From TrEMBL:
Residues 8-307 form the Microcystin LR degradation protein MlrC N-terminal domain. This is M81 family peptidase. Pfam families: DUF1485, MlrC_C. InterPro entries: MlrC, MlrC_C, MlrC_N. Coiled coil: none annotated. Residues 327-513 form the Microcystin LR degradation protein MlrC C-terminal domain.
Length: 532
C-alpha cells in the first residue's frame, strides 16, 4: 500500500531516561521540554532548526532524500532525564497516541524516537508497553522502527514489537541525525522487502556511566567496531542478512530488572535465526571484555587541588592553554537525573581560593530570577538552593550555600546547539545569569540540564577562545567531551568523585530491583550464552 504522495509513515516519540532515585517527572516537565502532537508536531518535522531531537530530523531528511513520502505526525514527548514519569500522565499520553494512531490508519510504517530507559511510578517498562501497543494497532506486516539511546535498558517486549532497533553508536552521542537517516534507509528497505527481525541478549553486566566512553582505544569502541563488521554494506556484503548491530551499555540508575548491557541485532525479513546467532556471539565477546571497563574517579580534594594549581599558574605567568583543566562533576549530572544543584565541589573550590574557574550550568531558578531582578553589575548576597528539598531517596545533596556575588551577564537562556548532542537543535535554559563569586564564576539557569554545548555559555557572553578561565567545571557525565574537546587535552579532563544522584560508584546506591549477581557489583557473576 503506497499513497500517491509516497508511503505514509507515522512519526512518534517518547523520550525519558529515568533515574529511580530522582524526583518524579511530571507532565509539566514534558511540556517544558517537548510535548507536541498533530499539526504542532508536523510543523516541527519541517522546521530548521527544529525543537525535536536530531534523530527525528535525520529520519525526515533521510526519507525525503530517497523519494516522496508523507510524514504523519502523531505525538512526541520528551523530558530532561529525571525520576520516573507520573503514571497518570503516561496513561493519558499513551491513550492520546493510540487515538491519533488509529485515526491515521492505514499507515505504511511507523518511526519512533525513544530513549529506552524510561520508568513510570508504576511500570518499569513503559517503553515496552508503548511499542507493544503500536504493534498491536498497526499489525504484524507494518515496519515499526525505533532509534534509541545507547543507554537504553532493553526488554523482550521492546524488541518483539520492533522491525528494526537502531541505537546510537557514539558516546558522547553525536550521531543522532545519522541514526535517524539509517532508520530511514531501513524503512525504505523494509517497505520493499518486509519487516525485519530483531534479536537481543542481555548480560548481567553494569558498566558505570563513566566507563561507557566510546573513543579510539576504549574497549567500548573496539566492541562497536567488531559489531559493525557484520552489518550489510558496512563490514559485510550489501546483500548480507544483518542490517544493524546495536551494543547498548544500559542505564543502571534506573534500578530495574531489564538493566544490563544488551546486544541487539536486526536482520532482514525471515532471518531471525541469523540475528539470534550473531547476538549470542557478540554478547560472548562483550562478557569476555567486562574486566576492561574499570571505574576510576578522582577524589574531590585532589580535583580541587588541580584547579588551584591551574589558577595560580595563570596568575603567576599568564598560564598557557597547557594548564587548562576540566572537572566533570559526574555525580551531579542532570543528563542522568541529577539535580544540577549539588554544591559540594563549588563549596570546596571557594574554600580553597581557586581562581580563574567557571562552573556551568547550575540549576537554581530562584537565584536566576533574583539576578535578573537586580540587573547586570549588581552585587548581592547570593543564596544557592534556598528552595531545594531532599530527593525521594532522602539525600539532601543540594546543600544551601551563601556567597557575595556580582551579576556579570543575563540571558533568556534560548540557544541553538552548535556541537555534539544538541547540534542544530533549538533549546531553552530559561532565565539565566552569570555570577562572579570572586575568582569563581557560576552560570545559573532555570531549566535543569547538563552543560554540553558552548552555546549555553556564549549566550551569557563567555567566549571560550578568549576567556581567561583555566578550569571549567561541568555538570555533566560525558557529553561535554564532544563540545569542549578543544578546551583541555584528554589527560586534563578529570572525573570527580563527589556526592550526587548520578554517582558512577554503583556500590553507593541502594539498588534493589536489578537481578543479582551482576558484574561488577558481584565479581563472581557468571554468564554463558544460551545454546538454543
Amino acid at each position: 500500500m503506497t499513497a500517491s504522495g509516497g508511503p505514509r509513515i507515522g512519526v512518534a516519540g517518547f523520550f525519558l531516561e529515568a533515574n529511580r532515585f530522582a524526583p518524579v517527572t511530571h507532565g509539566e516537565d514534558f511540556a517544558r521540554a517537548f510535548d507536541l502532537g498533530g499539526d504542532a508536531l508536523q510543523a516541527q518535522l519541517l522546521a530548521r532548526p527544529p525543537r525535536t531531537l536530531p534523530d527525528i530530523a535525520g529520519f525526515v531528511d533521510g526519507m525525503a532524500a530517497q523519494g516522496p513520502w508523507t510524514p504523519v505526525a502523531l505525538r512526541a514527548a520528551a523530558a530532561y532525564p529525571g525520576g520516573p514519569a507520573d503514571q497518570a500522565w503516561f496513561d493519558a499520553f499513551l491513550h492520546d497516541l493510540e487515538a491519533r494512531l488509529r485515526a491515521a490508519l492505514p499507515l505504511d510504517g511507523v518511526f519512533l524516537s525513544s530513549h529506552g530507559a524510561a520508568l513510570t511510578t508504576e511500570d518499569d517498562d513503559p517503553d515496552g508497553r508503548l511499542f507493544a501497543r503500536i504493534r498491536a494497532i498497526v499489525g504484524p506486516g507494518v515496519p515499526v522502527i525505533a532509534v534509541l539511546d545507547l543507554h537504553t535498558n532493553v526488554s523482550s517486549r521492546m524488541t518483539e514489537a520492533l522491525s528494526a532497533f537502531v541505537a546510537y553508536r557514539t558516546n558522547p552521542h553525536v550521531d543522532l541525525a545519522d541514526r535517524g537517516r539509517e532508520a530511514a534507509a531501513l524503512m525504505r528497505r523494509m517497505l520493499h522487502d518486509g519487516p525485519g527481525e530483531v534479536a537481543a541478549v542481555r548480560l548481567p553486566f553494569l558498566p558505570a556511566s563513566t566507563d561507557q566512553l566510546i573513543a579510539p582505544g576504549t574497549p567500548y569502541q573496539a566492541l562497536v567496531d567488531a559489531g559493525q563488521q557484520h552489518v550489510a554494506g558496512v563490514g559485510a556484503p550489501a546483500d548480507g542478512d544483518i542490517l544493524n548491530v546495536s551494543l547498548c551499555g544500559g542505564f543502571p540508575l534506573a534500578d530495574a530488572a531489564k538493566c544490563g548491557f544488551s546486544v541487539v541485532v536486526t536482520a532482514r525479513h525471515g532471518r531471525r535465526d541469523a540475528a539470534r546467532l550473531l547476538a549470542r556471539r557478540l554478547a560472548a565477546e562483550v562478557w569476555a571484555r567486562r574486566h576492561d571497563f574499570p571505574t576510576r574517579l578522582t577524589p574531590l580534594a585532589d580535583a580541587v587541588a588541580l584547579a588551584v594549581q591551574a589558577g595560580a599558574a595563570a596568575q603567576r605567568d599568564g598560564g598557557g592553554e597547557d594548564v587548562r583543566l576540566i572537572l566533570a562533576d559526574v555525580a551531579d549530572n542532570p543528563g542522568g537525573g541529577g539535580g544540577g544543584n549539588v554544591t559540594a565541589l563549588l563549596q570546596a573550590l571557594l574554600q580553597a581560593g581557586a581562581q580563574h574557574v567557571l562552573l556551568g550550568v547550575f540549576c537554581d531558578p530562584a537565584l536566576a530570577s533574583e539576578a535578573h531582578a537586580r540587573g547586570v553589575g549588581a552585587s548581592f548576597a547570593a543564596r544557592f538552593n534556598r528552595d531545594a528539598v531532599a530527593n525521594p531517596a532522602g539525600h539532601a545533596f543540594a546543600e544551601p550555600l551563601a556567597r557575595e556575588a556580582r551579576v556579570v551577564a543575563l540571558s533568556d537562556g534560548d540557544f541553538v546547539g552548535r556541537r555534539g548532542l544538541l547540534a542544530g537543535s533549538a533549546q531553552r535554559m530559561g532565565p539565566s545569569a552569570l555570577l562572579d563569586l570572586g575568582g569563581v564564576r557560576v552560570a545559573v539557569i532555570s531549566h535543569r540540564q547538563q552543560l554540553l554545548d558552548p552555546a549555553q555559555l556564549e549566550v551569557l557572553g563567555v567566549d571560550l577562545a578568549r576567556d581567561d578561565m583555566r578550569t571549567l567545571v561541568v555538570k555533566s557525565r560525558g557529553h561535554f567531551r564532544a563540545a569542549f574537546d578543544g578546551f583541555a587535552p584528554a589527560d586534563r579532563i578529570v572525573e570527580v568523585d563527589g556526592p550526587g544522584l548520578t554517582t558512577p560508584n554503583l556500590a553507593r546506591l541502594p539498588l534493589q530491583r536489578i537481578p543479582r549477581p551482576v558484574y561488577p557489583l558481584d565479581l563472581d557473576a557468571e554468564w554463558a550464552p544460551d545454546p538454543s
